[in-house]
Recover the amino acids of this structure.
């Protein structure tokens, strides 16, 4: 798989996320911002990120992931889809603006699981901004079952 | 318009159409064999017949407040607030295009929650709309 530099950066970053603070610091810009739209919170700068995550009640979540689906885009005009068995992320997709969308799974120490969606803005070879969403699994509604197939997730026990 | 702006326009048409309660927009922007994947409920809606079945039976269609639409080429992403009978979700929709129509949507719905007090010293309010 040929990987453009931004995709490689996102992959490195997500391999370090959320708890390899030193590596994350290296990969973030000085003016890093992380937004949590669900709670209306903004974390300004890497030091605040570190403070929150070292004080996270019950401890930080871990990833459980099994594949990357990526847009490996060498230039804005080009671009091809690649499917590759890999490690950390469920799905990774990218665009020419330097904005990448990462899908993954989060497992918290108390047993809760969330789907992660992180939108990363890359600038000058660093992660400049991140918007992070936490989507809770839910039971497929019965009313639409006749039109819907069940997808095997990588979180099936 | 270039192919790229046409794809973006398709996303805008979809969001505006759903907001207006016009489910016929789905057939205009999705391929007949297009898929909707909703990982949080492990559901896959495959093809136009099933898509119409689901959307024509939705108890309520969401109101759509677009926050961001970005992307390039055949990959576009929308971040939007989708409100169902007033209950809002922060949604992220990832669209993969093929030949000018949507081949696959991957959708996530994230519920709002109150910012916890324990971390307030390290955060600031997110300027809205987020």
């Amino acid at each position: 798989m040929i990987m453009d530099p931004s995709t490689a950066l996102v992959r490195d970053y997500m391999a370090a996320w959320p708890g390899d603070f030193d590596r994350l610091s290296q990969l973030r810009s000085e003016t890093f911002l992380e937004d949590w739209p669900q709670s209306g919170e903004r974390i300004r700068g890497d030091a605040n990120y570190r403070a929150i995550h070292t004080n996270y009640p019950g401890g930080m979540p871990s990833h459980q992931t099994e594949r990357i689906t990526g847009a490996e885009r060498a230039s804005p005009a080009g671009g091809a889809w690649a499917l590759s068995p890999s490690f950390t992320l469920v799905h990774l997709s990218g665009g020419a603006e330097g904005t990448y969308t990462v899908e993954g799974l989060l497992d918290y120490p108390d047993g809760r699981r969330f789907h992660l969606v992180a939108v990363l803005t890359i600038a000058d070879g660093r992660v400049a901004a991140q918007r992070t969403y936490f989507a809770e699994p839910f039971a497929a509604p019965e009313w639409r079952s006749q039109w819907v197939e069940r997808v095997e997730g990588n979180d099936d026990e | 318009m270039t192919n790229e702006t046409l794809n973006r326009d398709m996303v805008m048409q979809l969001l505006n159409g759903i907001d207006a309660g016009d489910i016929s927009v789905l057939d205009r922007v999705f391929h007949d064999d297009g898929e909707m994947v909703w990982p949080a409920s492990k559901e896959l809606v495959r093809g136009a017949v099933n898509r119409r079945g689901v959307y024509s039976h939705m108890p309520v269609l969401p109101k759509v407040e677009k926050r961001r639409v970005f992307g390039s080429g055949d990959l576009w992403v929308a971040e939007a607030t989708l409100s169902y009978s007033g209950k809002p979700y922060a949604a992220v929709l990832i669209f993969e295009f093929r030949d000018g129509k949507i081949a696959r949507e991957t959708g996530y719905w994230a519920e709002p929650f109150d910012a916890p007090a324990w971390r307030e010293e390290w955060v600031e309010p997110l300027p809205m709309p987020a």
Summary: The first strand of chain A starts at residue 28 and ends at 36. Residues 59 and 109 of chain A are 6 Å apart (CA to CA). The beta strands of chain A are 28-36, 41-44, 62-63, 67-72, 80-85, 91-94, 99-107, 113-123, 126-135, 149-150.
